[in-house]
Amino acid sequence: QKEVEQDPGPLSVPEGAIVSLNCTYSNSAFQYFMWYRQYSRKGPELLMYTYSSGNKEDGRFTAQVDKSSKYISLFIRDSQPSDSATYLCAFNSGGYQKVTFGIGTKLQVIP
Amino acid sequence: SQTIHQWPATLVQPVGSPLSLECTVEGTSNPNLYWYRQAAGRGLQLLFYSVGIGQISSEVPQNLSASRPQDRQFILSSKKLLLSDSGFYLCAWGALSAGELFFGEGSRLTVL
Predict the structure, then answer these.
(1) Interface of A with B (CB under 8 A)
(2) Which among A6, A97, A103, A105 is the top mutation candidate for probing chain B, defined by the most B β-carbons within 10 Å of its own β-carbon?
(3) Three-state DSSP class for B85?
């Protein structure tokens, strides 16, 4: 079983749609849950960061963590063409050694 | 604020040639530094990380090496490149505790 599972897509949605991106994980030691956004030919940028189960909202973005199901989600409301990018989930068990990334989901928002 | 610089942005190298990619961080001291590789269709693969000058940990045995000659400088090297070394190389620095990473713009390497 892979440590992190993420559907690579691509996912195409019309402008204004609600987007749901998901990852599952198997490592119970993961304590920190992150979402990165990566535009084509650029480095990933940290988008959302959460520590505990529950929801965290930042503007149009909501990160959701369900530790009991080992499942995290990122919701994008009122999606815009500028949201077109690859979204990577990431996990850390604490400390500096390793951040484990999903393969990334490519999202295209069509005007 | 902290910034991270990575160069060169793009390079094409023949098989068997040497490689040197450089990364510097500004606006923070004693950062944790990382080299990742991102190959097409694959996730981010951690290659090396460093918690201080001269302290390098390797995650994947391979044709590459890393060095940290100064606090905020991280270098990725190879003596002889292989075709399989092609990819997108990303330098990152991290906050001490939680695993948040901040990436540079990346270096795209093509080995022919």
Answers:
(1) 4, 8, 32, 34, 41-46, 49, 51, 88, 90-92, 94-99, 101-104
(2) A97
(3) helix
Token reading at B9: 């942005």
Six token digits for residue B10: 């793009």
- In whole angstroms, what is the distance from residue A70 CA to residue A53 CA? 10
Interval A45-96: pLDDT, tens: 999 988 888 899 999 999 999 999 999 999 999 999 999 999 999 998 876 6
Q: Distance between terminal CA atoms of chain A?
A: 38
Pick the closest to residue B26 from B106, B90, B91, B76 (CA basis): B91
- Give pLDDT tens digits for B48-100: 989 899 999 888 867 899 999 999 999 999 999 999 999 999 999 987 566 68
CA–CA distance, A40 with A46 (Å, rounded to integer): 15
How many distinct helices (H) and strands (E) make up chain A? 0, 11
Contacts of A74 (CB under 8 A, 6+ apart): A19, A20, A21, A22, A35, A47, A48, A61, A62, A63, A64, A87, A89
Residue whose C-alpha is closest to residue B24's, from B93, B81, B77: B93
* Residue from the list B6, B42, B96 with its beta carbon closest to the beta carbon of A96: B96
